[in-house]
Amino acid sequence: MAAQVVAASGAAAAARPLGGGSGADGLRQSPRLQLGACASRERWGGAAAARARRGSQAVSVISRAPRTEAEVLPLSPGDDAAVKEEANFQQLKAIQQLATAANGVWSKPNVRRKTKIVCTIGPSTNTREMIWKLAETGMNVARLNMSHGDHASHKKVIDLVKEYNASHADNVIAIMLDTKGPEVRSGDLPQPIFLESGQEFTFTIKRGVGTDTCVSVNYDDFVNDIEVGDMLLVDGGMMSFLVKSKTEDSVKCEVIDGGELKSRRHLNVRGKSATLPSITDKDWDDIKFGVDNQVDYYAVSFVKDAQVVHELKDYLRSCNADIHVIVKIESADSIPNLHSIITASDGAMVARGDLGAELPIEEVPLLQEEIIRMCRSMGKAVIVATNMLESMIVHPTPTRAEVSDIAIAVREGADAVMLSGETAHGKFPLKAVKVMHTVALRTEATIPDAETPADLGQVFKNHMSEMFAYHATMMSNTLRTSIVVFTRTGFMAILLSHYRPSGTIFAFTDEERVRQRLALYQGVCPVLMEFSDDAEKTFGDALSYLLKHGMVKDGEEVALVQSGKQPIWRSQSTHNIQVRKARRTSRGRTGRRTRRSVVGHGVAQAAGAGLGGDEMVRQGGRGELEEDGHCGEETKDVTGDDGFAHKNCYGVLAGSDLR
Description:
With 659 residues, the chain is of the alpha/beta class. The protein folds into four domains: 3-103, no CATH class; 113-181 and 277-444, Phosphoenolpyruvate-binding domains (TIM Barrel); 193-269, M1 Pyruvate Kinase, Domain 3; 454-658, Pyruvate kinase, C-terminal domain (Pyruvate Kinase, Chain: A, domain 1, 3-Layer(aba) Sandwich), CATH 3.40.1380. It contains 21 helices and 31 strands. The strands form eight sheets. An eight-stranded parallel β-barrel has the order 3-4-5-14-15-16-17-18, surrounded by eight helices. Strands 19, 20, 21, 22, 24, 29 and 30 form a seven-stranded mixed beta sheet that branches. Helix 11 (338-344) links the parallel strand 15 and strand 16. The radius of gyration is 28 Å and the shape is globular.
């Protein structure tokens, strides 16, 4: 019996993926190919449904091509493979169209994508042209690996990044200095040597040895720390050696997993750490270099306990240096002290290479998930690093496993994912960043709203700022709005980030250092703007900026948040949240009076005007509302010189004093 197939007539046939219909129709029949934002539409009712549909249109691609009448064509059995191949091609083409259209909604990828990308700068990317291209492709943080290069080469990169930041108001790159740490490395070889399984090879603490059968090690206590029967790993397990015997100055091994041994390779002993200080003399020199050049972050290697972090922070305070500390979790010794280490730091990096060398490899995914969970519950930044797109060092496309690895890190809630050799010395650095951007963006679209850790609210339940961050997040998720926050320290923007609201967090600050630092945090788009003494004018300027740069649409609602430990417009710390509509009007047009609902919930301001103006203040004492309810108030659109209507208050939640 001859098989039959339904085909579209005319040009529409070539554009139709699996399932028939237009490109979008075909995607509708395959839920796995739909963006999560599309799938969530059914959950919203009434006005919320309309808002959800409007928001989803930014990331959904629905083909409007008219349907054509289908015709039934006979198909011979020999043509079946060709039809399947064509169908698969069209299906992949539809997915690519989804990604392309989603990427073009806003000019800067870091605005749309929430998970940030850390790129290691090296020989492949240390020019002005490449740093500019990396930033435009999706880089959010430039990492300087102090294991390679000298201070002069790193200073050049720092100056280029700062030049980029100064010339781009709508995008910013943070600078991270990654210390070398107490690494144990092999010495120099005249040329790479190939070792086969079963072959004997010797490591010695004698300096300057490099032959086909023996190489020196840069660690004087190497022989004392190692025992017969230990497994010695090169480059995190790319090669492995079983220790058979040792002398006063040498360790004799049998090659278990062979390969090419090059100069200055990193050495680990599974289950053990070298008895070296976490911060070496070279590290202190590099840290001082970072202070002098005002980097934003230190990534400290091989942190074994919280004392290391305290020591570094004490030094930074003595230098009056505002630099945050990221601890790299990469040694077996750090695991028992994980909680105290992360508590003392500003964030953590899951350095899976060395972690997998010192611990059983099957433990690494579980540790990654636990470290991410712990950081999120404490409100700390977390970066997933090592081998994320390793194959793209030499190949233009990633493996499917690498794509899944990125997606898992995004779904687990990492603030950032990191590229190392892929951008430092790889052949395709821009493609690697593009792949990471696209995979992260696609994965984020499938994550349900309000995936805030259950214990985060418990940890912060007695702190006013944390409660406001929580309710602002719930408001963003319910109303499908972005959040605008004003901050001089970055505190409130970071706090909001860890609650993971569905909308973008536009963090306006008048401090350049804060702007750069916020580039690391998930969902935060930092903007540098001078604050006026008049709060209303500052709010209007912020909405004007968002409208001008296409970050919000005309008439779109946004939540404005002012909260935190250091108030901007008051002698006391006043907290409030408003939901406003950003409106664009023609220049010179006067605002019209409209009726809007002003809503009070739970708390009110004890004195002074709210963010919405004097007419919105309700009587309250000690931060408690005497009466909870709704009241109608008249507010007026105020059209500024720039032609934007800034004060059309849709609603207000809040205000209280924090003593």
